[in-house]
Amino acid sequence: MAESENLAPADPGSRASAWDPRQYARFGDHRGRPFRDLVAQVPTADPKVVVDLGCGAGDLTLTLAERWPDARVVGIDSSPEMLARARETDGAGRVEWVEAAAETWGPASLVAPVDVLVTNATLQWVPSHLRLIPTWVAALAPGGSFAMQVPANFDAPSHRLMREVAARHPRAEELRPGLERAQAVALPETYAALLLDLVSPALDAVDVWQTTYEHVLPAPEGERHPVLEWVLGTGLRPVLGVLTDEAEREAFLADYAAELELAYPRRSFGVLFPFTRTFAVAQVG
Ligand SMILES: C[S@@+](CC[C@H](N)C(=O)[O-])C[C@H]1O[C@@H](n2cnc3c(N)ncnc32)[C@H](O)[C@@H]1O
């Protein structure tokens, strides 16, 4: 599915396996870089309230607390598994960890204006996010910032092949909705236009860009393909949620892995995994 303005509708019937913090953390260094690149562009100087929406296992949220040591930092996520890991990591209890879905969470619940709202690698799981962004921006304090990053790699072989293997699977009809739902991102210009409308007339307060990271992943012979390991922690979860029988799941993974070996060949240095991401930062007046 190409990036589209027509975000996939919410599909209450779609299933995804639970988030696995350990699997997700396997490529932590690579996944952390876009977060750091995003937060580096946040212009708000001395925020009092900082929100990380879709905070995951919390290690990146804690970097927000380090950057703004005097701020109240709130990490919000819908996954109890991810939040459990976040609470473990945050032994000092520096961050308020809140279990809530982005679709129903309201900034009013914080009983204070939000100065910085960061949402990294999460909104692709929230098909209604184009409707939600204006409500989050409206809740920002004067001078506050909204900062988001979503993957823009849904036409890359990693995701195209996932869809192709799913499409030829006997349970293709069950697999399709979950895969479509997890790809609900818009074009960069859509985010730019939305945010420019919201901050108008301060049009220089919006910064939207894309970056392609050339990830170099270790790929020892005899070990599972690293791109398969990567997507097992994220994009493949809707498939894992449907194929709960182990033999059926392993057959799917073997088929998909064979395709990945051809698309991302193992070389002396490992595997090159190009990954494009869309970033948007907006500061309100
Ligand atoms: C790919 S992880 C990103 C985690 C973290 N922001 C990072 O950059 O490492 C996506 C996170 O979004 C959370 N998530 C998915 N759908 C969500 C929703 N509707 N509301 C809140 N969190 C959601 C997941 O539980 C998961 O922790």
UniProtKB/TrEMBL annotation:
It comes from the Bacteria. It holds the Pfam family Methyltransf_25. Residues 50-144 form the Methyltransferase domain. GO terms for molecular function: trans-aconitate 2-methyltransferase activity. The keyword Signal does not apply. It is an enzyme of class 2 (transferase). The keyword Transferase applies. Its EC number is 2.1.1.144. Keywords: Methyltransferase, Transferase. InterPro entries: Methyltransf_25 (IPR041698), SAM-dependent_MTases_sf (IPR029063), Trans_acon_MeTrfase_C (IPR023149). Transmembrane segments: none annotated. Residues 1-21 are annotated as: Disordered. One of its GO terms (biological process) is methylation. This is Trans-aconitate methyltransferase. It comes from Intrasporangium oryzae NRRL B-24470. The lineage of its organism: Bacteria, Bacillati, Actinomycetota, Actinomycetes, Micrococcales.
